Amino acid sequence: MESIGKEFELKRQGKIARLTNRTFKFDARIKEGWFSAVYFLKTKEIIKQRRPKQQVTMQFFQKKDAILCGVDEAIALLHTFAENPQDLKIWALNDGDKIKPFETVLMVEGFYEDFGYLEGLIDGVLARRTSVATNVYNVVQAAGDKQVIFMGDRDDHFSQQAGDGYSAYIGGVAAQATHAMNEWWGNEGVGTMPHALIQLFDGDLVKACEAYLATYPKDNLVALVDYHNDVITDSLNVAQHFGDRLYGVRLDTAANMVDQYFLRNQHEFGQEDLRGTNVSLVRRLREHLDAAGYPKVKIIVSGGFDADKIRRFESQNAPVDSYGVGSSLLKVNIGFTGDCVRLNGKEQAKQGRRYSFNPRLSAVEFSTVLEDE
C-alpha cells in the first residue's frame, strides 16, 4: 500500500507515465458512435463530405476550484477510438492537479472528423471523475488527520465502481469498500460486517463477532453496534467479551432514530438534534468506553456524512477516529465544456469562448498510453 501511495504521489506530480488504455475497459461500441450525441455524429459525416481535413483546436474547462481527475481516461479514450490517433496533438494536466475556474485542462488538435464525435464522452468522463475526486478531497480536508473510508458501493450503479474508486484515491482516500473500487490502482477492498450478519445470528452481536473472528482471524474486529439502537450497551458488551481483540466499533444510527441511551437519559435532551449519529452520542460512547477501561477501542461513524457534517463534528472535537462516507461523494456537481476555439491555426469560436492556452499543460506522447504497464 505504501509503495502504491508513493507511486501515485509521483504520478500527481507528473513524474511517471500516465495510466495506459489497458487500464480502462472501454465499450467497443464507442467506435460506432453509440454513446455520442447524434448531432456530433451528423457533424462528423457532414464535415467528411463537405469540408474535410480542417484542423481544429478543442479545449476543455470547467467553472470551479476542483481536483482534476479523468484526464488519463480521456486521453486513452482519444487514443483508442479517434481516427488516426497518432496524428492528434494533445496537451493535458495531470489527474490530481488542483484547477481553477475556466482553466484549460485538456487541449486536442487534429482533424475534426477524426475525434470530434468524442467531445461529449470526454466532458462526461472529466465531469464524473473530477466531481468525485473533489468531493472526496473536501471530505478529507474536513476530517483532518482522521481516516475516511469510501463506502459508495450502494449509492450508484456497480459498473461505476472502478472509476469512482480511482477518483476517490486521487481525492485522497485509499480505504474503499469493494475490490472493484481498487481495480485501477491495485489495492483491495476493506470492511468488516453489515447489519445482515448480526441479523443472521438472531440479533446476537457477540456471536456475530465471534463468527467473524473465527472466519477472518487476521482482520481487525470492528463491531457494528447500532443494530439494537443502543450503541453504548452493545459497545460495552463486545468490549468486555473481546477485550484487546476488539479494534473498534462503528455507529450507523438511522437519521430518524434516537439512541436508547438518550431515551433512558432524557435530561440530556437539549438544543442538539439527537437523531442519527450525532456528536453527543459519540461523546457519551467514548466516555463510557474509557471509564470501563477500553480507551484503545476506536470509534468509526457512518450514515449521512459529507464535508459539512464532518466539519461540524470536528469543530466540536467529536472523539471520532474514522468517518465512513458514501452518497455525498458521488454527486456530479462539476460540468466540463469542450469548445472548438481555433480553425486551421486561426482563432475561430462562438461568442464568449476564446483560445486559452494553459502554460501548465504538458504534451502527451501517443506511445504513453499504449505501452503495457
TrEMBL record:
What pathway is this protein said to act in by its record? Cofactor biosynthesis; NAD(+) biosynthesis; nicotinate D-ribonucleotide from nicotinate: step 1/1
Q: Which E.C. number(s) belong to this protein?
A: 6.3.4.21
Q: Name one GO biological process term.
A: NAD+ biosynthetic process
Keyword annotations from UniProtKB, A to Z: Glycosyltransferase, Ligase, Phosphoprotein, Pyridine nucleotide biosynthesis, Transferase
UniProt KW Cell membrane keyword: no
Residues annotated as domain Quinolinate phosphoribosyl transferase N-terminal = 39-128
Query: Reaction(s) catalyzed by this protein?
Result: 5-phospho-alpha-D-ribose 1-diphosphate + nicotinate + ATP + H2O = nicotinate beta-D-ribonucleotide + ADP + phosphate + diphosphate
The terms under GO molecular function for this entry are: nicotinate phosphoribosyltransferase activity; pentosyltransferase activity
Q: Does the keyword Glycoprotein apply?
A: no
**NCBIfam families linked:** PRK07188.1
**Name under which the protein is recorded:** nicotinate phosphoribosyltransferase
Species name for this entry? Caviibacterium pharyngocola
Q: What is the lineage of its organism?
A: Bacteria, Pseudomonadati, Pseudomonadota, Gammaproteobacteria, Pasteurellales
